[in-house]
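Sorry to interrupt, but I need a hand with the structure work. Leave the record below and I will have a look:
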Amino acid sequence: MDGLRKLTASFVVPGPCGVAVRDRLKHLTPQDEKVLRAVGEHQGALASRDLRARCADGLEHGADTWASRKRELTKESSSRIAGAITKATHDQWALARRCQAAHIQKLAAGIETLRHRLSLPLGEKGTKRAAGGYRSKSEWFRKSRRLAALEDRHTAAVADRQAGRVRVVRGGKRLLNTRHHLTEARLTEDEWRQRWEAERWFIAADGESGKRFGNETIRVTPDGEVSIKLPVPLAHLANARHGRYTLTARIGFVHRGAEWADRIEANRAVAYRIHLDVERGRWYLTASWQRPVIQTIPLETARARGMIGVDTNADHFAAYRLDRHGNPVGEPHRFGYDLSGTAGHRDAQIRHALTRLINWAVRAGVAAIGIEDLDFTTEKTREKHGRRKRFRQLISGMPTAKLKARLVSMAAEHGLSVVAVDPAYTSRWGAQHWQKPLTTRHRKMSRHDSAGIAIGRRALGHPVRRRTAPPPHDRSDRAGHRTAQAGPGTRGREGTRPPTTDRPPGGPSPSGKRKRGTSASNTVRDAPSTHRWVQDSLMHTG
């Protein structure tokens, strides 16, 4: 095991702690849309102003500054709306700080790689763990210039982080940059402007336990009636008492509707958000609430009924079912998906593949699914895989974080646990120990199928390899113990093979002819059947 990194222990992934459902606001009147646009525009302006103030505070932010910002916003809205805006602002600033730290880490990794490769002679070959020198002087020169650029970016990013400066855009940086590439995006300026304004609107409210139907600002009754508490400057648009506006649309959540109804009838907190899909011209309402933290089952309990090992690939999941001893059961299963196209198409493909995987796991009767704890953060650097563009695109296109979150959420609904394992060497060892033995005329084993077995065995706590080393090249044991042999305490382990009849050894046979006595066993195959075997099956756990 020299040169191999230490494997981390497998663990049961905690279950989801939140739920979100969405439904369309149908049959809205022109007046309803007018009011929604007015509310979104007004509160969006307040949110933009509050975000600017929060970014100006930097690291000096505290409870006093937060309260001061909330008081200023309350004058132009309400205390509940001001609280929702300031909380959303704080969350966005915190997210920007985490992204800033990840950016600094990525720059530092690139700088380290460039410095290492620039220090090597030209043309020097690399190893499995470190890249070699550059191929030519021109490439060396270009990389030295890139090193200087990365060092400048790293210095500026570190200075911003130390000063508490972040750079955020309400509406999204990607949509902002689309303004300069309207032709490529196939958008007109008016179409882009509509999307930009809709993304910057703010029509959301946090839930409040103990209040009527769990939310005072955006209230949804059990029969689906939606009403909004209007800000003070827009109170003249109200069509109900206490400055509220009731929409003509009715909401009826199909997915998790019973759970949502139970919460609002018990006046438990439910957060709502209303947004406009400009491309489709549809309004949607999203309801979300927190769940109590689900206590994960012990790892031994998850392993009790076997495991399904899943190998994640660029275009499919390769899954194999194993019993609790680590033996493969049945045939390999593959669940394909296509990650090309739009984000919505990719998300739908992942959901469909995971649905088929989970349904098969339920039918198989297992209690858990084993999956690799993948993280390609250090593998996506341009400096590490500069020439391997296809490989960089491959690993960048695999939505590992979203996949894990969605799998955990969907599996929890079916009573399944997810066991995360260290992904190191699963493909290599799986192909080495399982691909060839399981390949038959009617079963074609791929490298990914064998990797699924390796992942499942690691999740079950078994070693990847199926058995110990084969017997030595001769009959003696000087090269080490054989794979299958009698245990040290077995009586008669060095004796002769027992006779096939009741006659004494060397006695006459039933036909009357005398035969020579049975000699001692010379090979493992000829070992006495009465001996106790240390390992007696090809598929037994190692």
